[in-house]
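Dear colleague,

Following up on Tuesday's group meeting, I ran the structure prediction for the two-component complex that the binding team flagged. I've pasted the input sequences exactly as they went in, so you can double-check that nothing got truncated or mislabelled along the way. The structure tokens for the whole assembly follow below. Feel free to forward this to whoever is handling the docking comparison.

Inputs:
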Amino acid sequence: MALPSPDEIKAQIEAGVPGASVTVIRNGSPAAQHSLLLDHAHAAAVAGFLRDHREWRLDYCSLVTGVDWPDTETSEKIKVKKLVKAADGTESEQEVDEVRKTKVPGYLEAVYHLFSMEKKHGPVVLRLRTGNRSDDTHVPSLTPVWRGAEFQEREAFDLYGIVFDGHPDLRRILMWDGFRDYPMRKDYVPPADEIPHIEVQATGPEAHA
Amino acid sequence: MADDLKELKIELSKNGIFTTTLEELYNWGRKNSVWPLTFGLACCAIEMIATTMARYDLARFGAEVFRPSPRQADLIIVSGTVTKKMAPQVVRLYNQMPEPKYVIAMGACAISGGPFRDGYNVLKGIDRYIPVDVHIPGCPPRPEALIHAFMTLQKKIDEQALAGATRPRHLQKDLPSEFPVPEFGEHDLEPPQNSSVFHEAAGNPLKVIQ
């Protein structure tokens, strides 16, 4: 039996796990691989529900990865009514364009791809989001549900700084313990090298042509 | 050796008399029994293994005995990407080898970081911490290239004078045979390079070009 649509999965989760709220995140590309955003409080329960579901049996977590969504700034032009002084000193109300900038805070995301070994179907994509990128980087760990997620959650912790609450052994896995940075984040700056790569490229054959 | 002595030696050999110097004999023995360390880091190690097998047969050069202990080896072939996490161990292995000891940096990664140069965990060339005798470019270099590097090293050993100011490091008491092992820092290895070994121009292609 093939997996139902994401909306059907969402409906069944919300019926099966009381209080859980699931958001379907659409993927507009031709792949149309939609994903399910889980809330922190019920994430482990939802994961257990998906694993033990009689028809889906999503018993295999093939992939855990991190995604960094940096803080973004959007600017929009809006028309504002303002009192404008003309050259001759008279004031009149006019519509003026004003640029309003809004900061959209970023967040970190953990993405899980689930398959079923028994039913031979998948994937179901789960997402967990942190509050922000600086001081609230916690998400619940799904390692208690899928044991195979242990090392991959450690990797996401190591490279993105996502803290998985409930992980049995959350240490860095690739970098050394004393390392302070999260190298896969978009704003990571590697230690200063004596020569940036772009300057080396500028001396290549194309530069001399 | 003075030129007239060399001529005399050639003259004697024409008459069926073999003469040699202790230096020549010593270097001849050393260059034909270089024992590399069994040590591979990445894909270059596969080419290194191929070099030792029947088709390329490094045994022809007296170097078939790969030693599993640094205490018995006198050549370390740095074959592959040196990650920052691995770099202290590579330096420590080199330190544990007895003098005289030599280093071949094999492949683009070992000499400069190669295609992974801008990676967060990649050392930009092992010559930042230990003195490299022969660099081989290539990704990975073919076994022929490693054999060429090996012959270059043999030539270098053969030409080393045992006395005088140009004598090799292991015969000079004031020169170090061990090199500082880098520590794991908060952002990078500490120090990022050993400036007594690594020359700025070597890591800076701009300075070499100009």
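The mean pLDDT of chain B is 88.

Cheers,
M.
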